[in-house]
Each structure stands twice: as C-alpha cells, then as structure tokens.
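Take a look at this chain, tokens included, and explain the fold to me:
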Amino acid sequence: MGQCGITSSKTVLVFLNLIFWVEDEVNHSIQKVYNEYNGTNTDAPSRAIDYVQRQLHCCGIHNYSDWRNTRWFNESRNNSIPVSCCKPNVSNCTGSLAHPGDLYPEGCEALVVKKLKEIIMYVIWAALTFAAIQVFGMLCAFVVLCRRSRDPAYELLMTGGTYA
C-alpha cells in the first residue's frame, strides 16, 4: 500500500512538471504542423489543423495572419487561408484575407495549451485522490494494528527468544 502512495506522489510531480513543459512543446510542435499543412484531407497534419481550428474556433498559431508565413499560403497564391478558419455562421466563406471578419480572430496555440492544461489537471486530481485514498488506507491499518496490540487476546507466542 505504501508503494502505491509513493508512486502516485511521483506521478503528481511528473504531471506538475508537464504543465510547465507543455507550453514550450506545443509551440514547437504546432509551428512544425502548420508548416507541413498542404490543404488536402488525406494528409494527417492538414486534417489535424483543420480539426483543431473547427473544434476550438481558432485560426493560425497566434491569429489568422500567421498563415501568411506558411509554405501552403505562399504556394497557393490566392491570398486565402484554410476554410476551417471560417466562422460557422458565415455563409460562402472562402478564407479570403480580404474579409477578416469572416475568420476566427483568436489563434490556436493558447487554446490548445489551455485544453492540455485542463486535461493534465484532471489527471493530477485523480492521482492526488488516489494518493489520499492510499494514505487513508494506511491510517486505518495503523489504527487497527494499534488496537490489536493492546488487546490481551493477541499475545506474541515467544518461548526462549524464538517464535513458536
């Protein structure tokens, strides 16, 4: 039981460290994925970016203008960004930068970091709860052990310094 408590405490420390690490790692990873975007639905990075932008209602890394620095934007040469940046209530949105009001203004990086931190906090709370249950179990075992040692019905069976 004690080993489980120690293990869950170590797990909590690892996850606390992850909270600080996640922001730097997301920044690096998201930049890499945006640079690999090619606009096709068959490509994993493209599907991931489109999915995140639609689900989190965001566009680009910091905002929609980040798309200007991507290889896809420079190769497409149509002055538009992915349609996944379009607000759902806007009909006939083409992702054109000429109509920035049709696009999500907030970037995805901050929202992805926020979601990951929320998930990590749930895991930390679960680990802390597990550790608290372990400590409670050890406390109960200690109380039972102390009460039994004072009970005259429980005696050590010793004869001549050796256990019988």
About this structure: The CA atoms of residues 37 and 46 lie 5 Å apart. DSSP finds four helices and two strands in the chain.
